[in-house]
Design a protein that fits this description.
This protein is of the alpha/beta class. The chain has a single domain, classed as Vaccinia Virus protein VP39 (Rossmann fold, 3-Layer(aba) Sandwich). It has 8 helices and 11 strands. The strands form 2 sheets. An 8-stranded mixed beta sheet has the order 4-7-6-5-8-9-11-10, sandwiched between helices. The longest helix has 15 residues. The model has no long low-confidence stretch (mean pLDDT 93). The structure holds S-adenosylmethionine and zinc ion. Zinc ion binds next to loops.
């Protein structure tokens, strides 16, 4: 992000919970010094690591690379357009949006390109590194950090909207960081998402389960919608990349994985459910 000062309004120290402020040289963020000062440097790629646990996490480089290569081909552009239209409808123009589990920032940077100020967090350093570099190249108002969505380093009530796209749903945290009447957009696989890809691999291809409901005392459901269309992948690499970015990849036997090797084109259904909630 060109103007890093925006972080002064939103970042919370992951160690002591104090407000994080940009340092005078603009290279780090530090808490405001009540008790012990905690300092976090921006990485050369432009993101900041605010994840304090030693446990490694998030998608690995192979998965991130496959997803990045696949998404830049535009196969999922309609999903991104649908999320952007819902953001515009419910959160208004120039909203402050947190994209939870942002991966390599495909959706996040497209939200920023519309004039929203966007904060993307993911456990994967590889992911946020790619995301932050892309945002910098295009001078987008998007800021990226390493953090768990279950413990966001973000001040309470600081966001107009939270989006979670094929990512874990930490509803308690999302409710905390949203302002009153803030909007939560959940996007996840619908029943028939990638069903034809699954049929090419498995003898029995099961439908996906829908997403569970969120606690009614915290959120009010405003709209439930879906995006469905067909895509045709035109190369074996695209087929392999799509498979590698799905959760099935790691659960599939080598024998079943081999079935995709000879396939150089594939048509499959895209079926994404979108739930829009308002924080009560
Ligand atoms: C299926 S990917 C979706 C990424 C992106 N939203 C997209 O649709 O392209 C799920 C993402 O959630 C991230 N993730 C998993 N657990 C997480 C956690 N506890 N906190 C933050 N990110 C997490 C992974 O690293 C991965 O990038
Ligand atoms: Zn601190």
């Amino acid at each position: 992000m060109e103007n890093r000062k925006i972080i002064n309004d939103i970042l919370m120290c992951p160690v002591c919970g104090g407000r994080l402020l940009l340092t005078a040289d603009g290279r780090s963020a530090a808490c405001d010094g009540r008790g012990k000062r905690h300092l976090f440097d921006f990485a050369s790629g432009g993101y900041i690591n605010l994840y304090t646990s030693r446990a490694a996490g998030g998608d690995n480089a192979e998965c991130i690379g496959a997803r990045s290569a696949f998404l830049t081909k535009g196969y999922y552009e309609k999903i991104s357009d649908a999320v952007n239209a819902l953001l515009d409808k419910y959160a208004g123009a120039r909203a402050r949006v947190l994209d939870a589990g942002c991966g390599e920032g495909y959706y996040t940077n497209r939200m920023a390109a519309l004039g929203n100020t966007v904060f993307g967090f993911d456990l994967s350093k590889n992911g946020v590194n790619i995301a932050a570099k892309a945002a910098k190249r295009a001078s987008l108002p998007a800021f990226f950090g390493v953090a768990s969505v279950f413990a966001l380093p973000v001040l309470t009530g600081s966001m107009d909207a939270v989006t979670t796209i094929f990512a874990p749903c930490a509803e308690e945290e999302y409710a905390r960081v949203l302002r009153e009447n803030g909007i939560l957009i959940l996007a996840g696989a619908g029943k028939e998402h990638l069903i034809d890809l699954k049929k090419a691999i498995y003898d029995s291809a099961y439908e996906n389960e829908g997403r569970r409901d969120l606690p009614a005392e915290k959120f009010e459901l405003l709209e439930e919608t879906s995006v469905t269309y067909d895509i045709t992948l035109t190369s074996g690499t695209d087929v392999q990349n799509l498979f590698a970015m799905t959760p099935y990849f790691y659960r599939t036997s080598q024998k079943d994985k081999e079935k995709l090797r000879g396939i150089s084109s594939l048509s499959t259904k895209i079926d994404v459910e979108l739930f829009i909630y308002k924080k009560k």
